[in-house]
Amino acid sequence: xxxxxRDFIRLTAGTGAVAAFGQLGRMSAMAAPSGNFRAMxxxxxxxxxxxWNMVIPTDARHAGYxxxxxxxxxxxxxxxxxxxxxxxxxxxxxxxxxxWDEGSLALVLNAGTLFAPLTKATYQSRPDLRPSNxxxxxxxxxxxxxLRPRETSIDGFMGRIQDRTAATATPSLISLGGxxxxxxxxxxxxxxxxxxxxxxxxxxxxxxxxKNDAINAxxxxxxxxxxxxxxxxxxxSAYDLAVSSNGILTxxxxxxxxxxxxxTGAALNTDVARQLMRVARMIxxxxxxxxxxxxxxxxxxxxxNHSAEVGGGNNDTxxxxxxxxxxxxxxxxxxxAMQSLGLGENVTAFTMSDFGRTYQGxxxxxxxxxxxxxxxxxxxxxAPGGIFGTYPDPTLNGADDIGGQGRFVPTIAxxxxxxxxxxxxxxxxxxxxxVFPNWATWSTGGRxxxxxxxx
Amino acid sequence: MKSVSRWAVLCAVAGAAxxxxxxxxxxxxxxxxxxxxxxxxTPTPAPQGAPQxxxxxxxxxxxxSFGPTTALVSHIQQIGAAAWVDEQLAxxxxxxxxxxxxxxxxxxxxxxxxxxxxxxxxxxVAMRFYADAITxxxxxxxxxxxxxxxxxxASEQEVSATAGIAAFNQIFLDNAFGNFRxxxxxxxxxxxxxxYLDMADSNKSAPSENFARELLQLFSMxxxxxxxxxxxxxxxxxTRIPTYGPDDIRGVARALTGWTYARVGGAPLTDARAxxxxxxxxxxxxKYDSTAKTFLGVSVPAGAxxxxxxxAVVDAAFNNPSTAPFVVRHLITHLVTxxxxxxxxxxxxxIFANNGKGVRGDLKAVVRAILxxxxxxxxxxxxxxxxxxPILLMTSLARAIxxxxxxxxxxxxDSGLGQPVMRSPSVFNFYPDDYPLAGSxxxxxxxxxxxxxxxxxxYHNFVYDWTVSGDATRGEFTADSGLPPASGTQPLWSAWxxxxxxxDGMIARIDLLLFGKTLTDAHxxxxxxxxxxxxxADPLLQAxxxxxMMLYIAGTSPLFLVDR
Lengths: 455, 564
Fold this sequence. Notes:
The structure holds two protein chains of two kinds.
Chain A: H1 2-24, E1 38-45, E2 55-57, H2 61-69, E3 87-89, H3 97-101, E4 105-112, H4 120-125, H5 137-146, H6 157-163, E5 173-175, E6 191-192, H7 210-217, H8 225-250, H9 271-284, H10 286-289, E7 293-300, H11 319-340, E8 347-353, E9 373-378, E10 387-388, E11 412-413, H12 414-425, H13 432-435, H14 439-442
Parallel strand pairs in A: 1-7, 1-8, 4-10, 4-11, 5-6, 5-7
Antiparallel strand pairs in A: 2-3, 4-9, 8-9
Chain B: H1 2-14, H2 19-29, H3 54-64, H4 70-79, H5 81-90, H6 113-119, H7 123-135, H8 139-149, H9 162-175, H10 180-189, H11 191-196, H12 210-217, H13 246-255, E1 259-260, E2 262-263, E3 275-276, E4 282-283, E5 293-295, E6 298-300, H14 306-319, H15 323-335, H16 342-353, H17 363-372, H18 374-377, E7 386-387, H19 390-401, E8 403-405, H20 408-414, H21 453-466, H22 475-478, E9 489-491, H23 494-497, H24 503-515, H25 521-532, H26 539-555, H27 558-561, E10 562-563
Antiparallel strand pairs in B: 1-4, 2-3, 5-6, 7-10, 8-9
Helix pairs in contact in B: 2-16, 3-4, 4-5, 5-17, 7-20, 8-9, 8-15, 9-10, 10-14, 12-13, 15-16, 15-17, 16-17, 19-21, 21-26, 24-25, 24-26, 25-26
């Protein structure tokens, strides 16, 4: 059964790719990454993004969508289908339409945390196969970032990737979205940079002085227990990294000029845009840093919209529209910046989020915590027109709904989704079980990484 | 056996008030802990009857106040740990009660930024938080309230009504040494929380699950069933067992339907501009799901009143067995250590379950036991330590220097340091209690989530600004919030200037207040050299500059960053 699902996924993707070739006439669709450099940019949408309003069916299923989504459904009048697809992005995400048209955006449908392949029936009959504490922000964030859906993680997949990457003075794992589980390796730690401001160390110079001697005398915490020892090493590492990073962050860079609203020309000043702008800078200086692979963590918060997710009327406005609009502008700008560096095909950005939300809207024009959700993959190397996975049956209490409010069992595991990006990024087959602890489940029996990228 | 002997020590230390708890609680407290995990080394308590050491007085001040001061340390030294804790359990002083007058949301004229700051921001409440943290006498009450507010989170990020922020946080000050059930009940019906987690206006037609879920997951029992020692209960296959399922959430959400904000000035309940965030919510019978509800093993019959439904929910959350270890772990994590041994957990959890007089959730007994436990009072071991969160970094430095303040300069700083008080980025607080210590397979270090390349530099620059550049004339200290009475901030350098050329005296004070007398001779010599490299013809200025330099070196060190 899972074999046929896999075949269907591949077939869907292939069809999309062919359609994009034939009808968009994109010869450059054959573009391949230049050189060996690869970067992956994970964008974590904190709070649980309502993916059901990010990727919306526009064919006959839209009536079922509206009926089930109730208070939060976006009316057909507000939707423009993606070229040669039966899905639309949220109307606020129009900045990403040109990327779809050029074949640099792919859709992943109903992906989520899974311990084992599940259907509604096996979900109900086999509690021992469910991820623990579904619907919980903290647990599901940890499952996405740690990729151990039934255990507590103390390290995350990005950190584990870095564990198996050649060490560099400046870590090649860089977060603009703060410290998070995803970044913790078993042996390595990430560079965490601010999205704004610099890393200047006030009043410090490295000339020999009694002051610096004293600073050094206090720098070693090893005689004061493991916590102080760790803190001492963290502080020293931060001081060292700040020196190299600050030069990059304070230098003028042409990539900044791409972070503007194409409609107005105004500079993008949202936090997610600033984060991605700094990602672009760190990619720009990859050679100086000696990075042949980079991994980035970016975040955008505010997606826990239990109320006022939509603003009435066509429901194409509201808190969620604002968030997705900011996200789309920032992502599109980032892609243009990568193209300006000649790295459009070498960089892949992708979304993650705690969980999807209930398909059924609540009485306060919001949605509650759920499970499977839709995601976006962006980059010049993704399969043009790629649509991966199957859209769930939108019927409340239907074939995919475990609870009655539209909580859908994911049909794609995070491992199949992120695993595809990790393989593309350069994680070896041998290292996949280290990076993805549950890899055996998701690389056998007809399961495996999605065909997200051009062959 | 170990736990029994330590229990006996605690009982001896704790004194008569807890004797019956000692008799009754020990056995129950260790129930379920027979998983082989109880193998932590026994801490070394101060010998009974031994004089209070200065090191331990400083340690207690770090655990139970916003930072040691010379007066505080000598007071603890004088009366002993238990007497000081009891004194604190009776102390009052801090309050937001004068800020809880709700106003309509069109109260301020357009462009009146002072009015907006006063009525629709955390500014006045956060200023009070810091002003009281620096000087109010009820330090422990504030620390417990601060800890509670980091477990039961509502944030200015989503709801900015000042009266609501004040009223919500007043719940924690009022009940810091009260009963945990009263906190749960009050925050459930609080209008500010009602907006933050959408219980307000939740309608039986499609109830919001937001508050229902976080009440169980974050505010009371947590997602996993816990043993009394804090470890997760495991089923036959070694898997954690959830405390609730989706149907429980649904049931709780239905039981909590039918509430809306009280309104300012008697405005009708339909007036969206008149929400009173400071008062308990009121009932809207037409939105209440009065049919039968079942959750967490509790049944609420059809036709039960709204009050009965709320009480059933609060009781179910409060009485869940996991609520005791979940709340206790949070309090220990925020006061003493993020890595308590299972036996320490068990001792305190037993007191949460029963204070010795048959009362569950007695926070006064719980807090007292947390601080007077031998593990809290022991000389630090290799795994001891708690990374300072930014707010405690600020207040500890300021209290060590000596500050008078209206709080505004702290408010101005806390966002940049990553911890704007009363403005958490989400209901999950600034950091989770179980954030792992990088590189350790077992240890937690919650505040380390805020400690990274970026924040280390900000911590450093903050300390530099308030020490080496921290003269009273510093611009940020004279800044006026525009909210009377704006008194600004005065660092009290005169106490350091009074040392004159007595560098050793300054070093002794720094060693005491920042480090609990743990500095080595090498540390002290290095400080002295750095200080005496500074000379000035003005003896007071020279003394101040030397003190500032040493406080900078000390305040930016990892030894200060980690309390132990």
